[in-house]
Specification:
By secondary structure, the protein is α/β, with parallel strands linked by helices. The chain contains eight helices and ten strands.
């Protein structure tokens, strides 16, 4: 296990298992030379334990590696191939969905502009929007996408979504859309909740952004690679996109002088939509649940298709 908290969660889940806690940082202590284990809770790809690549993992006897985040776009494929890999898919669904709804409400209610710091020109007068009756276009309908859709439906929005499969959504009120152009043309709020893969790179490019509903609000809580940022700048400047609320960009972090920091149409946050007092606990609970499945010989949850990248 990388880190004491992960080790504690593993011991609580499977008391009879032999658990070894590996230091988070090399400064916290040396790595055992003879480290062995069938299961590895892998904190991040640059950890010293992984410096030896797949050969070191093979020597250790790792059959299953669990990643605490979602997606594998930052992970070298050489570390993932040849063994079962799972991730904590969906553990951030609640805080991320709330973040998306907050972003959409802020757009419609013009926060923070609506808040006063001096006497206004008029009282009881404002041009604010509402979510009810508007259309949410969702790109991605996994755990996060469904959590967003559920909350949007509670606000009486129309929800239209695209997903990789044709499996009908659990909620019949969600309309499944097969073509991106169709989704772009109708969305008042376009939310990106798809993984960052070769297939989704620059999904919103110049051609796609030319087809959006004028004045659309774009929210990206997925990966920065989904948007061609040069094309986004042009679409913001000509008004096709009213506002882009971006919790993830490319690269991260952005350079100090990047245009997104100062553009009036960008609401930028530092990839924090997942943050919650319960976030870490949910990550460990996800792993602990899978560890019980592994020991009992049951199918694991959140298995990654390395070739697909998700």
């Amino acid at each position: 296990m990388m880190g004491d908290q992960a080790a504690e969660a593993a011991r609580a889940a499977v008391p009879d298992a032999e658990i070894v806690a590996v230091p988070w940082e090399i400064e916290d202590g040396p790595l055992p030379d003879d480290l062995k284990g069938e299961v590895l809770y892998a904190a991040w790809h640059s950890h010293p334990l992984l410096a030896g690549g797949t050969d070191r993992l093979d020597e250790m006897g790792v059959k299953w590696m669990h990643l605490p985040g979602t997606g594998i776009d930052a992970w070298p494929r050489s570390l993932l191939e040849g063994r079962t890999v799972t991730c904590a898919r969906g553990v951030g669904a609640i805080p991320i969905a709330e973040f998306v709804l907050a972003s959409m409400l802020a757009f419609e209610k013009q926060f923070p502009k609506t808040w006063l710091s001096a006497p206004p020109e008029h009282w009881n007068l404002a041009q604010l929007g509402e979510l009810a009756g508007q259309t949410l276009g969702l790109v991605g309908l996994g755990g996060i996408g469904m959590a967003i859709a559920t909350r949007a439906l509670a606000f009486e929005m129309t929800v239209r979504a695209m997903r990789r499969t044709t499996t009908p959504p659990d909620d019949a009120r969600i309309e499944l859309v097969s073509e991106l152009d169709d989704l772009l043309a109708t969305a008042d709020h376009l939310v990106l909740a798809a993984p960052g893969t070769a297939a989704t790179k620059h999904l919103l490019d110049a051609d796609a952004l030319a087809k959006v509903k004028p004045g659309v609000h774009i929210v990206n809580i997925a990966r920065g690679s989904l948007i061609d940022q040069d094309a986004l700048l042009a679409a913001l400047d000509d008004g096709r996109v009213a506002v882009a609320s971006l919790d993830t960009v490319d690269p991260e972090p952005l350079p100090e002088d990047h245009w997104m920091y100062s553009h009036p149409g960008v609401r930028l946050s530092a990839h924090v939509s997942w943050a919650s007092p319960r976030a870490t606990g949910r990550m460990f609970e996800s792993f602990a649940s899978n560890l019980r499945r592994f020991v009992d010989g049951e199918p694991l949850v959140g298995v990654i298709d390395v070739d697909e990248g998700y």
